[in-house]
Amino acid sequence: MLPYLRLDLIQWPRRYYPDHLAFCILLRGLAYPERWNSMMNDFGRSQSYLCSVTRDVVLHLVRRYGDKLKFDYRRLALATLLRYAGIVEKKCRHPNV
Length: 97
Fold this sequence. Notes:
Blueprint: H1 2-5, H2 21-31, H3 36-43, H4 47-69, H5 78-93
Helix pairs in contact: 2-4
C-alpha cells in the first residue's frame, strides 16, 4: 500500500524525513485518538514532530486523492446503503449464496 500513497513525494517543510514512519504516525493518530504523551513515548519524537508529520501526510493525501475522498451522494444514498446492508445481512445468514 505504501508505494501507492507516494509519500516519497512529500516536501517536508521542517526538514523531517520520516519515510514509512509518517504513515504509522498518521494511522496511530486516526486509530485511537489519545493524548500526545503516549505517542511521544512510543515513537520517541516530540509533539511538534508528530503534529507536523501528521499534518503533512494528511495534506499530501488530500492533494493527491482529494477527488476520491468526496462524498458520492448518488452511490451512498440511503436507499443504496440499505440495499448494501440487506445484501451483507443475507450473505451472513447464508454464506454459500
